[in-house]
Amino acid sequence: MSTLSSVPIDYYLVFCSLLFCLGVIGVLIKRNALVILMSVELMINSINLLLAAFSAYTNDPAGQIFVFFIMVVAAAEVAIGLAIIVLIYRTTGSIDINVLNKLKW
Amino acid sequence: MFTKYIFILLTVLALYSGIMVLVSRKPIHSVLFLTLTFFAIAGHYVLLNAQFLAVVHVIVYAGAIMVLFLFTVMLLNLNKDEHSPKSRWAKLLAVIAGCMLMLTLIGIFRNYDLAVAYDPMMTQIGLVKNLGKILYENYLLPFELSSILFLTAMVGAVLLGKKEQL
After folding, report:
1. Structural domain of residue B22, as residue ranges?
2. Separation between Cα atoms, residue B120 and residue B115, nearest integer Å
3. Are the C-beta atoms of A36 and A27 separated by less than 8 Å?
4. CB 3.0 to 4.6 Å from A39: which of A23, B38, B84, B97, for a disulfide?
5. Where along chain A do its domains lie?
6. Tell me, what's the ipTM?
7. Chain A contact for B54, CB < 8 A?
8. Does the pLDDT at position B89 exceed 80?
C-alpha cells in the first residue's frame, strides 16, 4: 500500500525508458538473431511494466488487462520467431543476420 | 520507506542484468541474464499491487519463453562467439543513438503530471477476482480471439518446424 505513495510514477517512467533504450541498443549492436529477439522481449517488458504502473497509479484495471493481452501476443510471437530462427539455421547453417540479406535489393 | 529500497534494489538488478544481456558474448549467458531481468520485473509487479500479473509473468516469461530460448540455444549449438561482430564504430554509433532516444524520452516525461489522484485504499485491483470479472465482462471477445491467435501460432510453429517439404 505504501509503495505507490513513496515511489512517484516518474521513477517508473525513467526506469522503463532506460530498459526500453537498452532493448533498442541491443537490436542495433547485435548480429545474432536470437539475441535481437531477446532485446525485443526486453522492450516489450518495459512497456508492460509501464502500463501496469499507470494502471496502479490511476486505479484503472484496464491497463492490467492490456498487459495480459500483450503477454499473450508476445508468447505467440516468440514461438513463431524461434521456429523461424530454427528454420533459418537449418537452411543457412547460421543465424547471423548478415547472411539474411537476400531480400535487401 | 522500506518499499522504496526494494524498488531501488529491483531497478538496479533489472538494469544491471539488462546491460549484461547486451554485454555477454555467449547467447546462453544473455538468456540467463534476461531471465534475471524478468524476475526483477516480476518483483516490480508485486510492488505495484499487480499480483496476478506477477504470477503470470513468472509463469509465461521466466517459465515458458525463456525455456524456449534456452532450448533453441542448446538445440542450435550457438554457444560460441558471434562470427562477424560489428565494428567498434558501428557499436559506438548504436549506443549513442540509444542514449539520444533515452534523453528524448526523459525530456518528454520530465514535465509529466499524473492527472488522477492516487487512492491508497484500492490495493485489490490486481487480484484474480477483480481482473477476472473485468476480463470476462468487458473484454470477452479479445480473450476469445487470443485463443484463436494461440491456435494459429501453434499450427504455424509446427508447420515451420517440420522437416519435409510441403
Report:
1. 1-80
2. 15
3. yes
4. A23
5. 3-92
6. 0.90
7. no
8. yes
B97 assigned to some structural domain? no
What's the number of CA atoms in the CB half-sphere (13 Å) around residue B117? Answer: 3
Judged by a CB distance cut-off of 8 A, whether residue B103 touches chain A is no
pTM: 0.89
Nearest to A96 among B64, B84, B157 (CB): B84
The Cα B138–Cα A55 span in angstroms is: 16
Contacts of A26 in chain B (CB under 8 A): 21-22
Rg of chain B's alpha carbons, rounded to an integer?
A: 21
Mean of pLDDT values over B62-68:
90
**According to the model, what pLDDT value does residue B115 have?**
66
**CATH 1.10.287.3510 is right for the domain spanning A3-92:** yes
Please tell me the distance in Å from A103's CA to the nearest CA on chain B.
Answer: 19
pLDDT at position B149 over 90: yes
Mean pLDDT on B65-79: 84
Q: Tell me the chain A residues in contact with residue B21 when contact means C-beta distances shorter than 8 Å.
A: 22, 26, 35, 38-39, 42
Residues B1 and B76 in one domain: yes
Please identify, among B55, B80, B105, the residue that sits at the C-terminal boundary of a domain. B80
Kindly tell me if the per-residue pLDDT of B165 is higher than 70. Answer: no
β-sheet bridge partners, residue A96: A32
Q: Considering B49, B80, B111, which residue would you say is the last residue of a domain? A: B80
Which member of A3, A15, A96 has the closest CB to residue B3? A3
